[in-house]
């Protein structure tokens, strides 16, 4: 059993879906397949924008929905023979009407709840998978379409739901054990909670869907098909001499995905890593290319470095004060205050004197973070034991990543020497005990230069 996932760029229109089916024909000659697909092209963005405009009582949402509907109907007309189009067009039209009803409701209420947003965004993957299924049917390629919401159970944390793996794995194995079809088509990204309300797994969650399915079934491989030929040593839009990494470890892939590599959604690795299932990143439009293979161990790398990644738009939050010295619990209170407001901490560094602790968060969360932390420490701030939280925006993280860095002395020195020689000031430094990642915070305007040098 192989699990294949095709991203939005691979599903963006009739010609690209034809290429997807060409790949499926080839892979079906080798093994049974589960195919997980994302929404077509920019559909998710269009749905999200339409919902937000509707909630603001801006009637321009109707134009976005009209364009999206037209795109899906035109794709059907290009793919499906005229004699078989009627039922497919009717199905697509019905789904688009449902989308419009949700947005009309948001317009009337003047709000778009997280639960409603998940329901709205789910239609992107449902539409694309139904169109793919209809095209396969027109080609007489035997398969089954299955709604992922009937397989993947989550909690009610809408927009980024956590998977209940006990229930999910049971439902997946029961369904697939009852199936004799060689090909199963699933919409990615979507799931449901205990009350059968639609939930989503976060932006990029179709990768995660495929990984969950692969791990539950003990698949031989998880293939992720996208519009690039694998994971690269750096973002090619920033670093001119970036190149494909042929093989990386699970841990390196997780670090790279966390620190800005867009090829793979960060949570994807965990389920397959537990089952030691390799992940193959391939290019839908250049299927003959070897791509990148993610597995338990990466080959020995001469200098220990696998890749260089970066995260723009970071804010540094610094909590300082003489009242922190030797007093247990300050860090706990800081992180609790941030966690209660769902503010994710990207980087942590603390001086050995315990006089200060510094964390990095997404810049969009900085003002909210300052408000909640200052409230949490209001007594200490009022008495002068702790300073009001210091916020520095317009920062970025640049990270060196590699499993074998710990075997190569002097790498951090080489990194900071290169930054210093080129006039790039380092605002904060973090390195884990595993020595798999060295992260430096620099000014946002220096990020591109830092990654290149």
Please, could you describe this protein's structure?
The strands form three sheets. This protein has an eight-stranded mixed sheet with strand order 3-4-2-1-7-9-10-8, with helices on both faces. A six-stranded antiparallel sheet has the order 12-13-11-14-16-15. A two-stranded antiparallel sheet has the order 5-6. The protein has helices spanning 14-28, 43-55, 61-79, 82-109, 114-138, 165-177, 205-217, 250-258, 269-274, 330-340, 366-376, 378-382, 411-421, 447-452, and strands at residues 2-6, 33-37, 144-145, 183-187, 190-192, 198-200, 221-226, 247-249, 279-283, 292-295, 307-320, 345-350, 356-362, 390-401, 428-431, 437-443. The two termini are 44 Å apart. With 453 residues, the protein is an alpha/beta fold. The model has no long low-confidence stretch (mean pLDDT 92).
Question: Concise description?
Answer:
With 453 residues, this protein is an alpha/beta fold. It is built from 14 helices and 16 strands.
Cα separation of the termini: 44 Å
Note the total helix count: 14
Largest sheet: 8 strands, mixed
**Order of strands in the sheet with most strands:** 3-4-2-1-7-9-10-8
Q: What percentage of the residues does DSSP assign to strands (E)?
A: 15-25%
Structure classification: alpha/beta
> How do the SSEs run, as a string of H and E?
EHEHHHHEHEEEHEEHHEEEHEEHHEHEEH
Question: Are there runs of 5+ residues with pLDDT below 50, and where?
Answer: none
Rg on CA atoms, Å: 24 Å
Query: Can you give the helix content as a percent range?
Result: 40-55%
**Shape designation:** globular
Count of β-strands = 16
